[in-house]
Amino acid sequence: MNILVCVKRVPQTGGRIVLTADGQAIDTKFLGHTVSPHEECGVEEAVRIVEKEGGSTAVLTLGPAAAEEQLRDAMAIGIDRAILLETDGAEWDPVSTAGVIAETIEAQEAANGAFDLILFGNEAADTGDFQVGVRVAVALGRPIINGIKEIWFSDSRREVLARREAPGGGWETYDLPLPAVLGVKEGLNLPRYPSVPGRLRAKKKEIERVPLGASPSGALGLGAGEDAAGADSPIPGPTRRRLRLPAEERTQAEVLGQGPEAAPAVVDLLQRIGVLAK
Amino acid sequence: MSGAVLAFVEHAAGEPDRLSLEALALARGLAKHLGAPLDAVVLGSAAEAAAARLGGYGVGLAHVATDARFDEYAPAAWAAAVREVIGVRGPAAVVAAGSERGNEVLAHVAARLGLPMSANTIEVNPGESWQLVRQRWAGSLLEDATLDAPVRLLSVAPHAVAIDPVEAAAPAPTITRFEPEPEPADVVARVVSREAKASAGVSLSDAKVVVGGGRGVGSAEGFAKLEELAGLLGGAVGGSRVVTSLGWRPHADQIGQTGLRIAPDLYIACGISGAIQHIVGCKAAKRILAINTDPESPIMAVADYAVIGDLSTIVPAITAEIERRRASA
Ligand SMILES: Cc1cc2nc3c(=O)[nH]c(=O)nc-3n(C[C@H](O)[C@H](O)[C@H](O)COP(=O)(O)OP(=O)(O)OC[C@H]3O[C@@H](n4cnc5c(N)ncnc54)[C@H](O)[C@@H]3O)c2cc1C
Ligand SMILES: Nc1ncnc2c1ncn2[C@@H]1O[C@H](COP(=O)(O)O)[C@@H](O)[C@H]1O
After folding, report:
1. C-alpha distance from residue A191 to each of A74, A172, B62, B100 (Å)
2. Which residues does chain A have within 8 Å of residue B328's beta carbon, measured at their own beta carbons?
3. Residue B141: which region, alpha, beta or left (left: phi > 0; alpha: psi -120 to 50)?
4. B287 pLDDT higher than 80
């Protein structure tokens, strides 16, 4: 089984987000970086499948040079090799991102053989565009299903079975012929922590770098130049103008009391707001 | 080209989904703004029953495909049906719920038609070029964006737009049937089997009261006290990412950006610090009560009420007080 996982470097935001003065990005001066929990589970799943079935694993990201860190994190828990599509740091729109990832996959497959399974996160942690995986799968002509929380294979190993939570509860199962693409969700597994030898091994591994430079869709990185909207060419976008924080909806909490002595005040509240019968 | 606004409406056995009704509210406002008709596309053998209910939400024309093959979910096939209506009707925009299926079907439409798509949109202002507001980080951050395309594909963020009150007197929409013929490749990814919900109890998404536990609960066993309180209130128990990562609770119980987004009448957050990725999952609650040892924790800025102290003694005290009042009533 040959498996590719796509991950995206994002800032590790904590209690609140701080924006740069021009409102174009998150101020990351005091922040570390990570990938989405969905993608962490994708990485872990790829490693587990190959531990059991044999084969090889690769991780791919489109991002700045510093995204090497996220690729090494993935290799530290057992991914074999890494590909960095290196940007100038500005954000890329989902259409252009998917286009370059699909082209890269085709080139990789021509050189190293096909990926039986390609794993995406259900959505990226930052932009949450909910589309890069689907666009790549459609470009490659492969089936895709998102929201996956469990993966196994048919006895012949020609199909992947995958299930996700159904609307309203319960589970629904899909059965896709390989090669296939899955968008996975946190809950698929509990990712392991990297071991010290794992980290050391990852540090020494080569990373295949493909320079991309600036986003094809303009300085802001997210959107369409007017001329991109040719009749047959896909139209990237939307074009980002500005980021901003949502208005604070609530104010300071009303303190009902300290410790267990507050219980009567809490139950009064439950009755007052109607969640407990009087 | 009708310039209509076309809403993709999901339903369960003819009952329109809540998130689809939220999407319809945004679609209706947009249609009004454009002076354009509001259409809906509804799929599956109960599609007509669902469509008949949409008049009260402003839908004038409903495109229904009642072929039973659309009863089972297949995203590319459902997207093919939506594409067919787009081809016939030439809408200015297609609006779907920001649900798992809504986002997925719309992404297939986008990929096949080579169109941009704005997921989790909360506001649209059409004009020469359309200005919109969409959520990033599941709503911790907003993005003002411009969308220019022949057909604008928008999904609507969950719990960000209020459902319009139903107009009982409104006429049922005109129904037009269509019979999409999905290509074989479009039905490869489809549901092949399903498994019913394991527990009969109230689900986290539907519960009126949710008792949430975080790292402060201390252990898997610590959740028994939260279960007991939730049980007395007819509610459900959820948790933060820390407790699902530690294996204290299954991931299905996780509230937040990469878990569930809930909208109960009351959310009781026990031993949860209030990281933005958690808050986006519970801020649609009507009220939040925080129980936390730390009066400075970020949860206090979003909670309506708070009790300061150790949850391991406070939660059982609340349970005991409810039982005491019940016994004396
Ligand atoms: C991309 C991304 C997605 C994420 N998605 C999610 C998500 O979906 N859901 C989610 O929850 N998190 C998510 N997170 C993680 C999030 O950032 C926080 O790490 C997490 O929510 C913290 O969980 P917590 O509040 O339980 O733990 P902590 O932050 O450790 O807080 C524990 C709290 O318990 C209090 N406490 C301790 N002991 C007691 C006691 N005895 N009695 C009362 N109070 C006590 C402490 O004062 C503290 O406030 C995500 C992170 C990232 C980067
Ligand atoms: N820049 C990127 N590099 C690699 N993978 C990406 C990138 N952007 C998105 N993806 C993948 O596509 C998934 C969905 O992203 P999105 O459509 O942006 O929400 C993510 O979880 C990643 O697996």
Report:
1. 11, 23, 46, 23
2. none
3. beta
4. yes
By 3-state DSSP, what share of chain A in percent is helix, strand and coil, each rounded to 5?
Answer: 30, 30, 45
Q: pTM here?
A: 0.93
Question: What residues contact A214, with CB distance under 8 A and at least 6 apart?
Answer: A87, A88, A90, A221
Rounded to an integer, what distance in angstroms lies between the CA atom of residue B274 and that of residue B279? 6
Residues from chain A that touch B108, judged by Cβ atoms under 8 A, are: 134, 138
Residues of A in contact with B233 (CB under 8 A): 270, 275-276
Backbone angles phi, psi at A243, to 5 degrees: -105, 150
pLDDT digit string, tens, across residues B128-168: 889 999 999 999 999 999 998 999 999 999 989 999 888 88
Residue A201: predicted pLDDT:
94
Mutate to test the interface with B, among A186, A217, A244, A272 (most CBs of B within 10 A): A186
- Please report which ligand is nearest the Cα atom of A183: 2
Q: Does residue A235 carry a pLDDT above 70? A: no
- Report the share of chain A in percent with pLDDT over 90: 78
Identify whether the C-beta of residue A74 lies closer than 8 Å to the C-beta of residue A59.
Answer: yes
Contact A240 B132 (CB under 8 A): no
Q: Which residues of B are less than 8 Å from A222 in CB distance?
A: 145
Which ligand is closest in space to the CA of residue B262?
Answer: 1
Helix, strand or coil, per DSSP, at residue A217: coil
C-beta neighbour count of B9 within 10 angstroms: 30
Tell me what the mean pLDDT of segment B160-180 comes to.
93
Q: How far is CA A255 from the centre of its chain?
A: 39
A197 contact partners, CB below 8 Å, separation of at least 6: none
Distance CA B38, CA A142 (A): 34
Q: Give the rounded distance of the alpha carbon of A76 from its chain centre.
A: 18
Residue A250's pLDDT is 60
Tokens of B319: 């349970």
Nearest CA in chain A to B110: A135
Look up residue B179 and give its amino acid: E
Q: What was the pLDDT predicted at B321?
A: 97
CB A33 within 8 A of CB A11: yes
Computed over every residue of chain A, the mean pLDDT equals 90
What number is the average pLDDT over the span B240-248? Answer: 96
Read off the pLDDT of residues A16-27 as tens digits, 9 standing for 90 and up.
789 998 888 899
Does residue A238 have a pLDDT over 80?
Answer: no
Minimal-distance CA residue to ligand 1 atom 8 = B256
Contact B314 A262 (CB under 8 A): yes
> How far out from the chain centre does Cα A148 lie?
13
Pick from A8, A144, A209, A217 the residue to mutate for probing ligand 2's pocket: most ligand atoms within 8 Å of its CB: A8
Backbone φ and ψ for B146, nearest 5 degrees, come out as -115, 135
List residues near ligand 1 (CB under 6 A): A 12, 34, 36-37, 125; B 214-216, 240-242, 254-259, 271-273, 275, 277-278, 281, 291-294, 297, 310-312
Average pLDDT of every residue of chain B:
95
Bin A157: left if φ > 0, else alpha if -120 < ψ < 50, else beta: left
pLDDT digits (tens, 9 = 90+) for B36-79: 999 999 999 999 999 999 999 999 999 999 999 999 999 999 99
**Minimum-distance CB partner of B144 among A36, A187, A244:** A244
